[in-house]
Every structure is written in C-alpha cells, then in structure tokens.
Amino acid sequence: MINGAHVIIYSQDAEADRAFLRDVLGYPHVDAGHGWLIFKLPPAEVAVHPAEGSGSHELFLMCDDLAETIADLESRGVEFPDPPEEARWGILTTIRLPGGGDLGLYQPHHEPAYDL
Length: 116
Fold this sequence. Notes:
Residues 3-108 form the VOC domain. The chain is 17% helix and 28% strand.
C-alpha cells in the first residue's frame, strides 16, 4: 500500500536550500545520514495537467492568504522574483531558494483536496 510521496528538489547549493527549509520555513526533519535532511511537508495534493512530449513536474507550496504569507516570509529575508499573478485556479508567485532555484507558492481558489 502506498503511504506517502517523496519530493526531490534539485539544487545548485543543497546545503543552503536545506538550511532554508529548516530555518526559514521551519519544516521538521530527520537526518538520513551525512547531513541529508528529509523534511516533513504540509498536507499535499496532486494534479495532472496536459503536456506535450514527456512533460515535467513542479512543486508548489500552498497557503490560505498569499499576501500575508509573502509579508511574513519577506520579513525573514525570503526573495520573491515574480509579483503575485492571478490564475483561474489561484493566486501564485515564486520563492527564490538560496541555491538559485525557484519554488512555487499559491493561494488556491478551489477547495484543497488534502482536507478530503
């Protein structure tokens, strides 16, 4: 029986991004050995979108109030390279990770599936 999902974020600076998840976002974690931290994520849901070719995968964190979440994270030094954008399914933006990658953040307009 499947009992969870494991998400991988590839990074140019894994140490910095691990520290960000641990210290800035405050995610609980376990050490899998040699500093490889595995983080507990908030409840999750998965959607399947059409794609041409082999497609790709994305990770978006979700919040109840995007403006409030942005203000809180900016007070902790988090950089947002893109202003919030209204989409049919929610309001979204991007968090810049210390390792240079981006992580999606959005406030959904739909009922979250993780409460089902």
